[in-house]
Write a structure and sequence with these properties.
By secondary structure, the chain is α+β, with helices and mostly antiparallel strands. It has a single domain, classed as Sandwich (Immunoglobulin-like), CATH 2.60.40. It is built from 1 helix and 4 strands, in the order ββββα. A hairpin with a 3-residue loop joins strand 3 and strand 4.
Length: about 100
Protein backbone atom coordinates (compact mmCIF):
# COMPACT_ATOMS: atom_id res chain seq x y z
CA UNK A 1 0.00 0.00 0.00
CA UNK A 2 1.33 3.42 -0.96
CA UNK A 3 1.91 5.76 2.00
CA UNK A 4 2.50 8.87 -0.09
CA UNK A 5 3.05 10.24 -3.57
CA UNK A 6 4.88 13.55 -3.92
CA UNK A 7 5.70 15.60 -7.00
CA UNK A 8 8.48 18.18 -7.05
CA UNK A 9 9.56 20.73 -9.65
CA UNK A 10 12.99 22.29 -9.92
CA UNK A 11 12.97 25.09 -12.53
CA UNK A 12 15.85 25.21 -14.99
CA UNK A 13 15.95 29.03 -15.00
CA UNK A 14 14.30 32.11 -13.52
CA UNK A 15 14.11 33.31 -9.92
CA UNK A 16 13.36 29.82 -8.53
CA UNK A 17 16.23 28.16 -10.46
CA UNK A 18 17.70 25.27 -8.52
CA UNK A 19 15.01 25.28 -5.81
CA UNK A 20 13.00 22.08 -5.46
CA UNK A 21 9.34 22.86 -4.75
CA UNK A 22 6.57 20.44 -3.76
CA UNK A 23 3.87 20.88 -6.42
CA UNK A 24 1.50 17.94 -5.90
CA UNK A 25 0.71 15.15 -3.44
CA UNK A 26 -1.52 12.09 -3.44
CA UNK A 27 -4.19 14.25 -1.82
CA UNK A 28 -4.19 16.78 -4.65
CA UNK A 29 -7.05 16.76 -7.13
CA UNK A 30 -6.70 14.37 -10.06
CA UNK A 31 -4.65 11.26 -10.65
CA UNK A 32 -1.82 11.09 -8.07
CA UNK A 33 0.52 9.04 -10.29
CA UNK A 34 0.33 11.41 -13.26
CA UNK A 35 1.33 15.06 -13.51
CA UNK A 36 0.00 16.69 -16.67
CA UNK A 37 1.00 20.09 -18.00
CA UNK A 38 -1.69 21.36 -20.35
CA UNK A 39 -0.12 24.60 -21.58
CA UNK A 40 3.65 24.52 -21.28
CA UNK A 41 5.27 27.85 -20.43
CA UNK A 42 8.81 28.85 -19.59
CA UNK A 43 8.05 28.48 -15.86
CA UNK A 44 7.31 24.77 -16.42
CA UNK A 45 10.79 23.98 -17.76
CA UNK A 46 13.12 22.00 -15.52
CA UNK A 47 13.25 18.78 -13.55
CA UNK A 48 10.18 16.93 -12.28
CA UNK A 49 10.54 14.32 -9.58
CA UNK A 50 7.91 11.80 -8.52
CA UNK A 51 8.55 10.18 -5.13
CA UNK A 52 6.44 7.20 -4.04
CA UNK A 53 6.77 5.56 -0.60
CA UNK A 54 5.34 2.56 1.16
CA UNK A 55 6.44 0.40 4.11
CA UNK A 56 9.13 -1.30 2.01
CA UNK A 57 10.87 1.85 0.81
CA UNK A 58 10.92 4.86 -1.50
CA UNK A 59 11.09 4.95 -5.29
CA UNK A 60 12.03 8.18 -7.06
CA UNK A 61 11.83 8.91 -10.79
CA UNK A 62 12.81 12.06 -12.62
CA UNK A 63 12.02 13.67 -15.96
CA UNK A 64 13.50 16.83 -17.42
CA UNK A 65 11.23 19.15 -19.40
CA UNK A 66 12.92 21.28 -22.04
CA UNK A 67 11.31 22.83 -25.10
CA UNK A 68 12.97 24.00 -28.30
CA UNK A 69 9.84 25.08 -30.17
CA UNK A 70 6.11 25.55 -29.66
CA UNK A 71 5.45 22.31 -31.56
CA UNK A 72 7.74 20.41 -29.19
CA UNK A 73 5.98 21.74 -26.07
CA UNK A 74 3.10 19.27 -26.24
CA UNK A 75 5.45 16.33 -26.82
CA UNK A 76 7.63 17.39 -23.88
CA UNK A 77 4.64 17.53 -21.55
CA UNK A 78 3.68 14.03 -22.67
CA UNK A 79 7.23 12.89 -21.82
CA UNK A 80 6.77 14.03 -18.21
CA UNK A 81 3.52 12.05 -17.97
CA UNK A 82 5.15 8.94 -19.45
CA UNK A 83 8.08 9.21 -17.03
CA UNK A 84 5.66 9.47 -14.12
CA UNK A 85 3.73 6.41 -15.24
CA UNK A 86 6.98 4.48 -15.60
CA UNK A 87 7.88 5.50 -12.04
CA UNK A 88 4.54 4.24 -10.78
CA UNK A 89 4.94 0.91 -12.61
CA UNK A 90 8.48 0.50 -11.24
CA UNK A 91 7.23 1.34 -7.75
CA UNK A 92 4.59 -1.35 -7.97
CA UNK A 93 7.27 -3.90 -8.84
CA UNK A 94 9.87 -2.71 -6.32
CA UNK A 95 7.68 -1.69 -3.42
CA UNK A 96 4.97 -4.29 -3.86
Amino acid sequence: MVQYVRWYHEPSDGPMHGERTLIKTGRSAGEPYVHTIHAVRRAHLGRYTCEIKNVVGINTCEAHLSVRSAAAAEMAAVAVVVAAQACWIASRRILG
